[in-house]
Design a protein that fits this description.
This protein is mainly α. Helices cover 57% and strands 1% of the residues. The chain has a two-stranded antiparallel ribbon with strand order 1-2.
Length: 539
């Protein structure tokens, strides 16, 4: 048996170095891989709990236990690689036809793959034709795909701060005890011990969704000596009820963090940002058309935030949210992201849900939860016409507005299946039009375009307000009197009053309260802290 230690969430005092538990970061990515694989939420966390219980039962300790834990959380991290290709080949849900036999005999595996090619709803002749067309592509691409899956898993593990030994496990991810893995790299004890434990736990949790502990014990026992190390398989089969006991009414999050072998690993400073950049790259693997999207959005949004004078912490938050904003894309079928024509109503609804998936993936972790409000708001619009919440200007922080503008610009200047990339000039015009229409924040749009090196087209303010009138309304909305507005903007009181009256007339109000409500509704109070005299102390 080996020890356990529950690491507390790290609180960073001002001036202290920032750190976060590696387990918290990797467990968050594990939730995203559940979405990408079409598994139930927390499926990967449950598998990790079972793997660690099994390791305990087997007396596995030290480095082997740690490697089992981290690698199990990342088991499916490379599986969204070539997702577009998989969508082209398979017409059936792999969870129904292939995953049940993933660790069966080689013959069962082959027939499981072939059975996944045709669309189950198609006619018999159509299914035969689909199989005939899909099988050659499957045969050509299976080995390259599995190799890529291993390589991507290894690279992600390294970027998430894991040791070279742990990252190196992924080279053996598809191997079997009997040496008949598709890549034929190892067999028996040549397959690292953590991988042998992972395979049994992975299959046990999947089979557990098809039947009870007795069913799992039977299936795992049958595969002992084939795909599985007999000692490990028989251990699980003999204690299946205890090892598989998961409360379906409770989240597994806390239990999986508690299962981390001591000492708990942490990411510090730049290691955190390297890991978050890996999240963005993982999300972008869902389609070739998205390659590099998250990194471009993150840098552009952060640079625009700095241009607008946001403090260093806010700039860092915007950059991090930019890397994370599309993690929910993996929850949408890759064929939708690659569709060259218009989306159906159902497909569009799935697209609209991807920010919701981002929010749900990030919300489990205290560290990521702080970034979720901005990361999941990249498709919200000031007028409430965005998604997934339909939030309007008062609910959208400066970081969310910047991310929305940067995301829109990067998307427009990148090719998509249904269109070519827009020229930078055309994209600048489109972004300015979105700001003029009240959908994007004008200040955010201007900062993004300036940072991108584009001339800023004229942006019309709501109700025809001038830039000065917007500043005046913003200060009034913060509670300043006309004299204070004049001092803040270094103009005369008479000039300030004229701007107030002009602004009121344009927006159709006559009171400060109504003007404040208008300013909040149209996103006019988010930018700029103007210097004013401090209020005199209360008597």
């Amino acid at each position: 048996m080996y020890g356990r230690r529950v690491g507390a969430q790290v609180e960073v005092a001002q001036g202290a170095r920032e750190e976060v538990r590696t387990a918290e970061v990797i467990a968050t990515l594990c939730l995203a891989t559940d979405l990408g694989m079409g598994f139930p939420f927390e499926h990967g966390l449950e598998g990790t709990v079972v793997a660690m219980r099994l390791a305990d039962e087997l007396g596995i300790t030290g480095e082997d236990a740690s490697q089992t834990y981290y690698a199990m959380l990342l088991t499916h991290s490379g599986c969204t690689t070539d997702a577009q290709l998989a969508a082209e080949i398979f017409g059936s849900d792999l969870r129904e036809s292939f995953h049940p036999v993933l660790y069966g005999s080689p013959r069962q595996v082959v027939f499981g793959l072939i059975g996944s090619i045709p669309d189950p709803d198609a006619s018999l002749p159509a299914r035969a034709l689909q199989t005939a067309r899909g099988f050659p592509k499957l045969a050509r691409n299976q080995r390259p795909h599995l190799t890529a899956t291993c390589e991507v898993g290894e690279m992600l593990a390294a970027r998430l701060g894991l040791s070279p030994a742990t990252a190196g496990l992924f080279a053996f991810l598809t191997e079997r005890w009997d040496g008949k893995g598709p890549l034929r790299r190892a067999g028996a004890e040549e397959v690292p011990l953590p991988i042998r434990v992972m395979h049994v736990a992975r299959d046990a949790v999947f089979q557990g969704r098809r039947g009870g502990p007795e069913f799992v014990a039977e299936v795992i026992g049958e595969r002992a000596g084939g795909a599985f190390d007999p000692e490990i398989a028989n251990c699980l089969a003999s204690k299946a009820p205890e090892l598989l006991a998961i409360d379906p009414d409770r989240s597994t999050w806390e239990e999986v963090l508690a299962a981390e072998p001591a000492p708990a690993a942490t990411l510090v400073g730049p290691e955190i940002d390297r890991a978050l950049a890996a999240f963005g790259d993982f999300a972008d693997l869902i389609s070739p058309h998205l390659t590099g999207h998250s990194a471009r959005v993150a840098e552009l949004a952060a640079d625009a935030a700095a241009r607008l004078g946001l403090d260093a912490g806010e700039v860092e938050g915007v950059r991090r949210a930019g890397h994370l904003h599309d993690i929910g894309r993996v929850g949408v079928h890759p064929a939708i992201w690659s569709k060259p024509g218009p989306l159906t109503a159902d497909e569009w609804e799935q697209v609209r849900l991807h920010p919701y998936h981002t929010e749900r993936v990030l919300s489990r972790s205290p560290f990521f939860a702080g970034l979720a409000p901005i990361a999941s708001a990249d498709h919200e619009r000031l007028d409430g016409s965005g998604y997934h919440r339909g939030a309007s200007a008062p609910a959208l922080a400066p970081g969310a507005r910047l991310l929305a503008a940067a995301d829109a610009y990067v998307a427009m200047t990148s090719p998509r299946p249904h269109r070519l990339a827009l020229s930078t000039e055309r994209a600048a015009d489109e972004l300015a039009a979105e700001a003029s229409s009240g959908r994007l924040d004008p200040e955010a749009a201007m900062a993004v375009l300036e940072q991108a090196g584009e001339p800023v087209p004229p942006i019309e303010r709501p109700a025809g307000l001038t830039e000065r009138e917007v500043q005046v309304l913003a200060l009034l909305a913060r509670g300043l009197q006309t004299k204070q507005v004049a001092r803040a903007l270094e103009i005369s009181v008479k000039t300030a009053d004229r701007h107030v009256q002009n602004a009121y007339a344009k927006v159709g109000v006559s009171t400060r309260a109504a003007a404040t409500l208008y300013a909040m509704e149209h996103g006019l109070v988010a930018w700029g802290e103007f210097p004013i005299e401090e209020a005199p102390p209360r008597a």
